[in-house]
Inverse folding.
């Protein structure tokens, strides 16, 4: 038979009351914060799951931000390309009229030249379009700086023919071939810009070196870069091996050897070729393609190289000059053909941009679904059932009151109580 003292009863009652107070404090914190777990030790497994869910939610938020930025850049690009088609179509109308002999008088030639000059100015303005953050959308990675605010620089000269005055005679591209990319899903990237050397080009470009390279051999292991693609050249490679490596590099360009054992490079889609000898390499220089004393591409093409191909700006300038001269044959033949090629190139980029816009819209919907699922899992893992928690708190409060009442009756009076 166990001996029970007043002190034992008191201690047991205080222990039970203390335990109930701890539980009440826990429920009170849950009601105040709306969360089951205050610190990881409360439930290590749930705490780990919550961190994983929260990490996924934050990751998805970043993807959604990237998707929204991609949408903006693609919308700017699409809008600009659509406006370009209108300008080219207007130039085509002028070309058709010119080929029919409409611009026979000096005044009409002057009016046609003036309009094309204005269309040229608008094309350059479009080429230097910036997004909401002030970044050039056609400058590659050169998206705008103090030293290079615009990727396209017009060149002017005073022209007497057609009474044009200071008119544009060329446009230099000072951007690069870089494409801005954004991660729109885990491990999934999308290109959201097009470099200007592709968009504003009307025809395929052909570079014909005027150097006999029949005896050429690379004197060391070197690297060349064409349109941003690096190609390794090994010591001892001759021109035929170099040509094979270029053709097998997956470029939108092909190489061949001319009758004089000279290197010929030709694009397979309208764009301006970008040639570089990497590091201390001299392969393209030795083959007569580039001159390392000149600035970076595309201005580094050797002056001896024969260049064929026109940008959209050069196409418009050629049309203007032919109209002023009244050369109906060239306007109706070559110039109309160039306009059609330029329009075809712009429409191709519009199609690609539209496909990317559709893809981004689908990714946006998918990301919102993923975020919703993660938020639901996170809520189930860390959130409390308010009604249930309130009921438990009320029940615990009642139990606490009963415990106090029972304790008061179960503690027997002591001798001191009788002496009072």
């Amino acid at each position: 038979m166990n001996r029970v003292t007043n002190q034992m009863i008191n201690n047991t009652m205080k222990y039970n009351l203390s335990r109930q107070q701890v539980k009440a404090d826990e429920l009170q914190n849950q009601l105040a914060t709306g969360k089951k777990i205050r610190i990881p030790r409360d439930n290590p497994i749930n705490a780990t799951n919550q961190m994983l869910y929260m990490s996924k939610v934050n990751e998805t938020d970043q993807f959604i931000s990237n998707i929204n930025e991609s949408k903006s850049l693609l919308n700017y690009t699409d809008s600009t390309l659509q406006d370009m088609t209108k300008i080219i179509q207007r130039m085509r109308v002028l070309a058709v009229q010119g080929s029919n002999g409409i611009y026979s008088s000096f005044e009409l030639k002057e009016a046609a030249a003036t309009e094309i000059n204005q269309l040229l100015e608008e094309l350059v303005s479009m080429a230097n379009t910036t997004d909401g953050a002030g970044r050039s959308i056609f400058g590659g990675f050169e998206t705008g700086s103090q030293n290079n605010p615009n990727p396209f620089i017009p060149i002017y000269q005073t022209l007497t023919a057609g009474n044009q005055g200071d008119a544009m005679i060329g446009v230099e591209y000072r951007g690069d071939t870089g494409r801005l990319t954004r991660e729109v899903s885990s491990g999934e990237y999308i290109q959201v810009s097009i470099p200007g050397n592709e968009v504003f080009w009307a025809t395929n470009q052909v570079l014909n070196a005027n150097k006999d390279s029949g005896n050429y051999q690379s004197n060391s292991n070197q690297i060349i870069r064409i349109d941003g693609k690096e190609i390794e050249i090994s010591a001892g490679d001759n021109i035929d091996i170099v040509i094979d490596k270029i053709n097998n590099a997956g470029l939108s360009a092909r190489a061949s050897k001319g009758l004089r054992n000279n290197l010929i490079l030709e694009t397979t889609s309208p764009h301006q070729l970008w040639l570089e000898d990497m590091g201390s390499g001299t392969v393209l220089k030795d083959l007569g393609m580039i001159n390392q004393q000149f600035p970076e591409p595309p201005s580094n093409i050797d002056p001896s190289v024969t260049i064929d191909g026109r940008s959209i700006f050069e196409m418009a300038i050629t049309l203007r000059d032919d109209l002023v001269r009244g050369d109906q044959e060239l306007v109706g033949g070559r110039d109309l053909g160039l306009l059609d090629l330029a329009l075809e190139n712009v429409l191709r980029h519009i199609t690609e941009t539209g496909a990317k816009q559709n893809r981004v819209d689908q990714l946006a919907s998918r990301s919102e679904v993923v975020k919703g699922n993660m938020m639901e899992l996170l809520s189930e893992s860390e959130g409390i059932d308010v009604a249930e928690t309130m009921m438990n708190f009320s029940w615990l409060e009642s139990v606490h009151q009963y415990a106090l009442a029972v304790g008061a009756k179960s503690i027997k009076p002591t001798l001191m109580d009788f002496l009072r």
Q: What stands out?
A: The two ends are 33 Å apart (CA to CA). The mean pLDDT is 84. The CA atoms of residues 35 and 383 lie 5 Å apart.
